[in-house]
Amino acid sequence: MVVLNKIYTKTGDGGETALGNGSRVAKHSKRVTAYGTVDETNATVGLARLHASDDMDAQLAMIQNDLFDLGADLCRPDMEKDANAEYPPLRMTDTQVTRLEHEIDAMNDVLSPLRSFILPGGSALAAHLHLCRTVSRRAERLSVELATVETVNASAVKYLNRLSDWFFNASRIANNDGKGDVLWVPGANR
């Protein structure tokens, strides 16, 4: 259980922060940048939820919780030492990835195939979901970049890859099952 009695600690005033294992790193490190962008993604999901209802809101709430799990996963390096940890770190699982895949498939079942790229927009919810998509893509790129120099849980990267697809399909659902999608017209303004 987390207890936060005081929000500021002054321990980061020198440009460093603590990771989940207690080690200190620069706030601009690849790991901090990756999980910080996961946090940004979570904030964009919070905005989208202001426009969502019922099933979509429930699914977005689950994603927000998953994103906290993902941040906890990314902030804890040294996966090979997990077995000896006093408190086993929280890691993303393929079960979370599979849930997203099932939800993507269910949304895809009601959507017509695309015959054009679509522009971010349409309804307010769709526009916010497109923002979620682009920020989650950035989180994925940064996590993949981190994985080139440090160990990263493969399920975490898979989750981020599926998540942007989830947001894309969800944006189409939010646009009246794709009927309100804003289609790209190549060269329209030449």
Characterise the protein shown here.
This is Corrinoid adenosyltransferase. Residues 7-173 form the Cobalamin adenosyltransferase-like domain. By secondary structure, the chain is mainly alpha-helical. It has a single domain (24-77, 88-180), classed as Up-down Bundle (Hypothetical Protein Ta1238, Chain: A), CATH 1.20.1200. It contains 5 helices and 4 strands. The protein has helices spanning 30-49, 54-74, 94-110, 124-147, 154-174, and strands at residues 16-18, 24-26, 118-119, 182-183. The strands form 2 sheets. It has a two-stranded antiparallel ribbon with strand order 1-2. Strands 3-4 form a two-stranded antiparallel ribbon. β1 and β2 (24-26) form a beta hairpin. α3 runs parallel beside α5 (154-174). The protein is elongated and about 55 Å long. The N and C termini lie far apart (58 Å). The model has no long low-confidence stretch (mean pLDDT 93).
